[in-house]
Amino acid sequence: MSTALIIALTIVVLFAAYMIYSFRRMKTMAAVTESEKIITLTDKNFRNQIKNGLVMVDFWAEWCMPCKVMGPVLNELAEDANFKAAVAKLNVDHYQSVSQQFGIRGIPTIILFKNGKEVDRIVGIKPKDFLIKQVNKHL
User: N or C: fewer beta carbons within 10 Å in the chain?
Assistant: First the structure.
């Protein structure tokens, strides 16, 4: 075997091992304790909670790794006194009818509601600054 082939195979094996390690680590990652200021939504309280003001709703699931990554970001926003929207979460596994009503196809999906109407939709992992800019556009 040539030296270049050995090096390439070594790199591929190391990369595969790193990906397996990362996946297992992420899969066993504990969920972050949710802020007390985050509103937990259900099919019963959903309409009432989004009808007034600006509300950022995170559609998530317990098994969703990207949702776990977004947890600390949402906690920071909920705790930030200068953030101009309420932060709420709806578990798509527990309340499938609500998630179907809004056409949620991938999670995490964040929908920004203003006085009960959807004004913005954000899919995937996003940084805190991006979410703040999106909310500020709708003030």
Answer: N
Of 38, 55, 67, 85, which is the active-site residue?
67
pLDDT by position in tens, the chain (length 139): 688 888 888 888 888 878 777 777 766 665 668 899 999 999 999 999 999 999 999 999 999 999 999 999 999 999 999 999 999 999 999 999 999 999 999 999 999 999 999 999 999 999 999 999 999 999 8
Whether residue 67 lies in the annotated active site: yes
Q: Which fold has domain 39-136?
A: Glutaredoxin (3.40.30)
Q: Which of 32, 39, 61, 64 is catalytic?
A: 64
Task: Quote the pTM value.
Answer: 0.80
Is 96 an active-site residue?
A: no
